[in-house]
Amino acid sequence: MTTLTLITGANRGIGLEFCRQSLAHGDTVIACCRQPEQADALQQLALSHPNQLELVALELGEPAQFDNLCAYLGERKLDRLICNAGVYGPKGLPLGEYQADHFEQVMKINVTAPMLLVQALHPHLAGDAKVALLSSKMGSITDNGSGGSYVYRASKAALNAIGKSLAIDLQPQGTSVVLFHPGWVQTAMGGSNALITPEVSVRGMRHVLEQLSLIDSGKFINYDGVELPW
Ligand code: NDP
User: Fold this and answer.
1) 109 ligand 1 Cβ < 6 A
2) Which letter, b or e, does each residue of 201-216 get, where b requires 16 or more Cβ atoms within 10 Å of its Cβ?
3) Which CATH architecture has domain 4-222?
4) Which of 10, 16, 80, 158 is the Cys-Cys partner for 5 at CB 3.0 to 4.6 Å?
């Protein structure tokens, strides 16, 4: 049977690479992004993978849309759910200049959205489904040796807490959950000095996902398979 994979933030960066590699592997892919009609790379992929790629509009800041996504799925069950979309928020802001609204959008997209999306979709997960949450080593409190980046760090630490609870709560239905650090990846967010390509990052994460079982559910794992400290 074909693997059914849903990916958020599928139009560029790491999400787009997840689409490419999942399609190459033969998955049926539901690629979610804000504006499918402007997602040129996805449109090209749809042409080269007829009947394998479905483009769905999804604004993660509007959780009411998650119900539409459930209705779109109907009776179909997801084998893989890749909660990839994320935002960084203010870069290089010094202590003294933070405002409450710096937190609001980032928390909404990096924390509230993946939590409510998994909550909405969990009845639509196949028995042995695997959920990947794209976190970051910036969310590791142990690893924080440089301070700053309050908003992004806090959002990914909160996502880690959510992923751990999801792993426990979804265990009875057979769903495994992993929190990924994708590496420092060459994307709009990672910048051109980043150390690895999306291709290398996603190849690693897909390998980890294939090996993932309930025993490893709820772990924080680097793209190369190494477990990370919270
Ligand atoms: P990019 O900035 O390249 O892409 C972000 C994606 O998220 C885009 O598809 C974007 O869509 C989507 N997105 C943002 N806001 C929304 C929204 N409100 N609704 C729907 N989609 C939205 O980031 P990366 O590919 O680099 O990052 C992917 C994930 O990996 C993120 O969660 C990030 O935090 C994490 N990560 C990345 C690292 C890196 O080095 N690159 C390092 C550690 C973690 P749109 O085009 O519409 O804006």
Assistant:
1) yes
2) bbebbbebbeebeeee
3) 3-Layer(aba) Sandwich (3.40)
4) 80
Q: ipTM, 2 decimals? A: 0.99
Return the structure tokens found at 60.
């993660």
Distance 26 CA to ligand 1 centre (A): 24
Mutation choice for ligand 1 from 185, 195, 197, 224, CB with most ligand atoms inside 8 A: 185
Dihedral angle of Cα 188, 144, 114, 164, to the nearest 10 degrees: 150
Contact 229, 48 (CB under 8 A): no
Q: Do the Cβ atoms of 125 and 131 come closer than 8 Å? A: yes
Digit-coded pLDDT (tens) for 194-226: 999 999 999 999 999 999 999 999 999 999 999
